Amino acid sequence: MKGCGVCHSDLHVMKGEIPFSSPCVVGHEITGEVVEHGQHTDAKTIERLPIGSRVVGAFIMPCGNCNYCSKGHDDLCEAFFAYNRAHGTLYDGETRLFLRSSGKPVFMYSMGGLAEYCVVPANALAVLPSSMPYTESAILGCAVFTAYGAMAHAAEVRPGDTVAVIGTGGVGSSCLQIARAFGASDIIAVDIQDDKLEKAKTLGATHTINSAKEDPVEKILEITGGKGVDVAVEALGRPQTFAQCTQSVKDGGRAVMIGLAKAGSLGEVDINRLVRRKIKVIGSYGGRARQDLPKLIRLAETGIFDLGHAVSRKYTFEESGKAFQDLNEGNIIGRAVIEIV
């Protein structure tokens, strides 16, 4: 392993807010080098990913064979959710990690990438060009991957669309850059921290709203001439911002939810407005590894997506605990990455 992003999804697991098998190794936003192939690796995979290959990994690891994967919907892979998210294993029902002292299993959140070595299904990997840095490129596998899935597949952002992003952390700030790359006109960033909003301006936001100081829905309506935006994205996973997201879109607009919440959290929506004004509420967990990850690498390689601006802090492997403490306390603007070796 070379780099691993610091993500709120891991923090949710660590705090017990999302049920997951324990003990486990977190870390799902990775770059690294191929050092070994599994016993049953096919010849085409070995040719695509030879020993020594520089790679980036997507956190949704498609099996490639289930009903959804066969249709290209890697983000809905049945095996990923049935085995990894439900039980912390790979798709033979087994983890690859065990305690040395007792042999008891240690489970894997995605590939369990916050480690010196990890085992990753080949379908989740794409080759990383030598021109791209290991550390900054790690965020392609979750923060950028999640943003791209939301913008390309859920929201279907088109040139000229107006977009609001509620919550400008690692994923939300990536949404700003993807919206800009897709040709959105007005891009509105909403947060409660002025420093994050200042950063948002460098990533594509044309307007910023501090929702601790003014009503974000009213302000979005003011910016858009009373109409609302074509697309609103909620990147926090909170009932209040869920409601703000649905209230911010115009008639026929798309409200896209990408923020994970504490288990059991519920969001409210005005049913009559939803029905009468044809509001679309769409959940989006991530992108589609086999088709999207190579595109994201190319966007970053050409500078259309600026990895340098997206990554604001770096930690050593030994500082992993501090990295998640800083994340928990809201001290990270954008995305942080842990440098492993």
Automatic annotation (TrEMBL):
Cofactor(s) essential for the protein: Zn(2+)
Recorded superkingdom: Eukaryota
Residue ranges of domain Enoyl reductase (ER) in the record: 75-338
GO MF term list: metal ion binding; oxidoreductase activity
One Pfam family matching this protein: ADH_N
Presence of keyword Ribosomal protein: no
Matching InterPro entries: ADH-like_C, ADH-like_N, ER, GroES-like_sf, NAD(P)-bd_dom_sf
Keywords noted in UniProt: Metal-binding, NAD, Oxidoreductase, Zinc
Family: Belongs to the zinc-containing alcohol dehydrogenase family.
Protein's recorded name: Succinate-semialdehyde dehydrogenase (Acetylating)-like protein
Organism annotation: Trifolium pratense
